[in-house]
Amino acid sequence: MAEIKAADVKALRERTGAAMMDCKSALSEADGDMEKAIEVLRVKGQASAAKRAGRSTGEGTVASYIHANGRLGVLVEIQCETDFVARNDDFLAFAQDIALHIAAANPQYVSADEIPEEAEAAERTVFEQKAAEDGKPENVREKIVEGQLAKWRKEVALLDQVHVNADKHDGKTIEELRAEAAANTGENIVIARFARFAVGEE
Amino acid sequence: MAEIKAADVKALRERTGAAMMDCKSALSEADGDMEKAIEVLRVKGQASAAKRAGRSTGEGTVASYIHANGRLGVLVEIQCETDFVARNDDFLAFAQDIALHIAAANPQYVSADEIPEEAEAAERTVFEQKAAEDGKPENVREKIVEGQLAKWRKEVALLDQVHVNADKHDGKTIEELRAEAAANTGENIVIARFARFAVGEE
């Protein structure tokens, strides 16, 4: 068995964000091969993420963000498993970052699963009328409309949106950032609900 | 015509919160009689409040309040007529005070008019069953249930609630405080909507 160097453990941790102990055991399992160790962590990560996703989230935080002009505000509830994580600075920073994103990106639902049937049906009608007006042949309309609907579903769903601060977050979606926060804290993290009020909008 | 003393104008202003000029002209109209002047102001106030209530509110502010433990948050949109009032300190303090009240008092609707029929029907059923279980005679049950429903409607409606800080606000309801803010600013003020999230509550 290859000797596991502390520098490799550190490098693996930096590349994956996994815990030191997990990095060390992944390197052991991969016989010191960095790329293999990453694969080991990835598979284990998915397994533990799946395990985490089932765990109940009774703790958490409510974060708010008010835009400087005071005409726009966001409230978001982010849940985790323990009071310990709920008070963790990284977790609170994550919650703040999500609130800021919601203010800027104006999602309508947390996830695409929550889109009500009527809302989707209304959107479908608009796309169908547009396709007809554009003179698209009937046999391709259905496909065009389905494509537009799929795009729309992603646009209105918070978890599918790319964080507005793409520089800071490397073009990751909110779901990817949520999964990272879950991996970093070792807890199931759920964006439970949000409200976004702009003055005079409703 | 009685001479109008500056001290009386000041006293009237302190008792009613009306503008100096209005206090002076009310005292003139009441021939210097303080109680009559209050009545004059009250009638005029109602007239101008009615006029104000019809005016459109396209400006305003979104205020938030997060309870110290971070497990409870409120977002509230308060509308007014002009950007000038929207940036006014008293207006912003009013918005903050309403957000704090919502956190503590947990209203379900802005006004009783917004209570959905199904919610009221469900509540009625509960009260009716309770009245039957308590063995109340059938002929008085309806009256008991109506009384309980009227009480419930007031409890869940923000505007009908007495502000939780009764010391500061002298036991006034949120609607009374709203009307005061409207009178003080001279603009129509509307509590448009609110959200209140407590971790794990939903």
Write a concise keyword list for the protein shown above.
homodimer, 202 residues, alpha+beta, three-stranded antiparallel beta sheet, 9 helices, 3 strands
What can you see in these coordinates?
The structure is a homodimer of 202-residue chains. With 202 residues, chain A is an alpha+beta fold. In chain A, 56% of the residues lie in helices and 13% in strands. Chain A has a three-stranded antiparallel sheet. In chain A, strand 1 (59-66) and strand 2 (72-80) form a beta hairpin. In chain A, helix 1 crosses helix 3. Chain A is globular. The termini of chain A are far apart. The model of chain A has no long low-confidence stretch (mean pLDDT 90). The A-B interface holds A 57-66, 70-77, 79, 86-87, 92, 192-193, 195, 197-200, 202 and B 57-66, 70-77, 79, 86-87, 92, 192-193, 195, 197-200, 202.
Question: Which helices and strands, and how do they pair?
Answer:
The structure is a homodimer of 202-residue chains.
Chain A: H1 6-16, H2 20-29, H3 34-53, E1 59-66, E2 72-80, H4 83-86, H5 89-105, H6 117-133, H7 138-156, H8 166-169, H9 174-185, E3 190-198
Antiparallel strand pairs in A: 1-2, 2-3
Helix pairs in contact in A: 1-2, 1-3, 2-3, 5-9, 6-7
As a whole number of angstroms, the C-alpha radius of gyration of chain A is 21 Å
Order of strands across the main sheet of chain A = 1-2-3
How many E-type strands of chain A?
A: 3
How can the largest sheet of chain A be summarized? 3 strands, antiparallel
Largest interface: A-B, 30 and 30 residues
The end-to-end distance of chain A, rounded to whole angstroms, is: 65 Å
How many individual helices of chain A? 9
